């Protein structure tokens, strides 16, 4: 008689968690992730070969040491360490590409406890129902400051206006199936904005809603400057609409200038020409401003092309807690 191993037919899940200087939160949240994974295994939603994969993004505190000791304490914890800090998006990609090797589904989540781990169950259920992508969407942003809430809302609206298909209030908490990860591995750009790239892969998708909490400990790594950089990167990496807007603006201003020239000529012919110093100065400043802005936007794209042509690796893995998962 052949005994069927039930867990073999269950999908192997990999929870991918980028960590940068998170020594204060890891001891707390690692337990939360493991508890949730144990529940999913117990409910026979995922295989007991599932793993939690921490990606140390070149931290300079005890993060990697903690990850290593977690891996020694429990077989479900694994980790990779990047050779230097490469930023959240690259760290996440490193983890996802690593997960692709051994799992059937991945769920990416931040390490600071802000995203509710209980939403994972609904994500896995949606996967069993045939979804390849499941977005974790924040149902409320009570934990965020008023400024972060309004700027984030404006950001998503702007992204959509620019033709970038990003799910409103979804960051990087999501489930991806193996075939999405496989397809994703062919996206070779160095300027990463994962939440805008995933919808480009396609396949069936759905959303699950969760409450966003406050960070358990430590500080956000996304101050205003980094948030603006991420927003700008998201738009210029995935949309050429700003350049189109510049062209339209240039066209519009040219027509305005033409009208202005005709008007000046008419005034001259009527002999009413006066020294219009103020209007002249404002016109010059306005035109100068528009030109600088336009050049800046074009420069953003030229910079992006420059970085893409180098084909540099997006991350380098320096260490693993184990070579086999
Ligand atoms: N992170 C990372 N590399 C970085 C910055 C952040 O891997 O250079 C990780 C960080 O440890 C966390 C996640 O990315 O797990 C999100 O960062 P954070 O919580 O600081 O951002 P916020 O939630 O404030 O937007
Ligand atoms: Mg956070």
Automatic annotation (TrEMBL):
Domain Glycosyltransferase 2-like intervals: 14-183
Pfam families listed in its UniProt record: Glycos_transf_2
GO CC list: plasma membrane
Chief place where the protein resides: membrane
Alphabetical list of SUPFAM superfamilies matching this protein: Nucleotide-diphospho-sugar transferases
Annotated keywords: Glycosyltransferase, Membrane, Transferase, Transmembrane, Transmembrane helix
Recorded superkingdom: Bacteria
GO MF entries: glycosyltransferase activity
Membrane topology value: Multi-pass membrane protein
Protein family: Belongs to the glycosyltransferase 2 family.
Protein name: Glycosyltransferase family 2 protein
Species annotation: Gordonibacter massiliensis (ex Traore et al. 2017)
């Amino acid at each position: 008689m052949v005994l069927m191993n039930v867990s073999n037919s269950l999908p192997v899940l990999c929870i991918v968690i980028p960590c940068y200087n998170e020594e204060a939160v890891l001891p707390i949240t690692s337990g939360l992730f493991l508890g949730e994974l144990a529940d999913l295994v117990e409910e026979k939603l995922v295989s007991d070969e599932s793993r939690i994969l921490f990606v140390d993004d070149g931290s300079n505190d005890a993060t990697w040491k903690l990850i290593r000791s977690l891996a020694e304490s429990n077989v479900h914890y694994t980790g990779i360490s990047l050779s230097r800090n490469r930023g959240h998006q690259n760290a996440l990609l490193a983890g996802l590409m690593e997960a692709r090797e051994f799992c059937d589904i991945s769920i990416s989540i931040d390490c600071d406890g802000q995203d509710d781990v209980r939403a994972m169950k609904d994500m896995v259920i949606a996967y069993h129902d045939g979804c390849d992508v499941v977005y974790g969407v924040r149902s409320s942003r009570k934990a965020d400051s008023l400024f972060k809430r309004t700027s984030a809302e404006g950001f998503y609206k702007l992204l959509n206006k620019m033709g970038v298909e990003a799910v409103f209030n979804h960051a990087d908490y999501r489930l991806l199936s193996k075939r999405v990860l496989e397809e994703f591995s062919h996206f070779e750009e160095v300027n990463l904005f994962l939440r805008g790239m995933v919808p480009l892969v396609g396949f069936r998708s759905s959303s699950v809603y969760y409450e966003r909490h406050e960070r358990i400990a430590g500080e956000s790594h996304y101050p205003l400057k980094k948030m603006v950089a991420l927003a700008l990167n998201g738009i210029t990496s995935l949309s050429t609409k700003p350049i189109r807007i510049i062209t339209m603006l240039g066209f519009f201003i040219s027509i305005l200038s033409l009208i202005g020239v005709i008007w000046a000529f008419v005034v001259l012919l009527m002999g009413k020409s006066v020294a219009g110093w103020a209007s002249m100065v404002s016109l010059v400043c306005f035109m100068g401003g528009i030109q600088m802005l336009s050049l800046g936007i074009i420069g953003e794209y030229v910079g992006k092309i420059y970085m893409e042509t180098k084909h540099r690796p997006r991350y380098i893995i320096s260490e693993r807690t184990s070579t086999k998962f």
